[in-house]
Amino acid sequence: MKRSKNIQLLLAFVVIALVQIGCATPQNTNTTTTVATPEATPDKAAIETELLKIENDWPRIIKERDVEAVRRLEADDVLLVYWDGSVGNKEQDIKDIGAGNLSADSIQMSDTRVIVVDKDAAVVSGLITITGGKFKVDDRTVDVSGNYRFLDTFARRDGQWKLVAGSSVKAPAGAAATASPKASPNASPSPAVKASPATKPSPKPAPTKRPLPPAPAATP
Predict the structure, then answer these.
(1) Domain containing 66: what range?
(2) Fewer CB atoms inside 10 Å of the end CB: C or N, the chain?
């Protein structure tokens, strides 16, 4: 009799245990581990080609007074610093290019280099040689021939490359000796977009602009 009760209790415990197991919420074993996808390596060759195309188009932009191209290529907050420390902006750039204030007999670009920072940032440097350059300022025309080193910073915004900063310095005459295989020496329009073609600083600089820094005093 006692043994029978023990068997009944054991069976009751087994039933209770089975019920609890059946009611237990199964654990989710299908866990998904999120793995960070490494950023793609930038196509440096493609970026270099695109930015050099933009830089080499400035002579045409100046010659044809293509202000729409200026609006498209320059960032609204672009910062332009010239050889004498003065600054320019997009608005003044558009005014000068639209007015055709700059002209030149010939211009040569050399020593062009592109440094790709990442897929959305790059720097372009080079040397511009301007021959027969003339710039109209106020009621006079000044000679802006010479060599100028430039450094432009580009950022890709909304899928488009924008010039966000640019600077230029006057270079010695011998600077043109080092030519770059990537240069565009046959450009005929004036690319003074980034040049600072003033031979002498003026005590009262002209308004700042991308094509030129403050104009020098007129040569007697």
Answers:
(1) 44-177
(2) C
- Tell whether 193 is covered by a domain: no
Residue 74 parent element (H or E) = strand 74-81
Give CA–CA dist 110/153, Å, rounded.
Answer: 18
- For residue 44, what pLDDT is reported? 96
CA 198 from chain centre, in angstroms, equals 26
Q: Whole-angstrom Cα distance, residue 167 to residue 172? A: 17
Is residue 112 assigned to a domain? yes
Please enumerate in sequence order all residues whose Cβ is within 8 A of that of 136, keeping only pairs 6 or more positions apart, or say none.
99, 100, 101, 102
Encode burial over 132-166: b for 16+ CB neighbours within 10 A, e otherwise: ebbbbbeeeebbbbbbbbbbbbbebeeeebbbbbb
Cα angle 119, 122, 128; round to 5: 150
Q: How many alpha carbons fall within 13 Å on the CB side of residue 50?
A: 20
Which pair of structure tokens corresponds to residue 161? 């490359």
> What's the angle, vertex CA 209, arms to CA 213 and CA 56, rounded to 5?
90
Q: What is the CATH number of the domain that holds 91?
A: 3.10.450.50
User: For the chain, how many structural domains are there in total?
Assistant: 1
Q: Report the C-alpha gap between 127 and 111 in whole angstroms.
A: 6
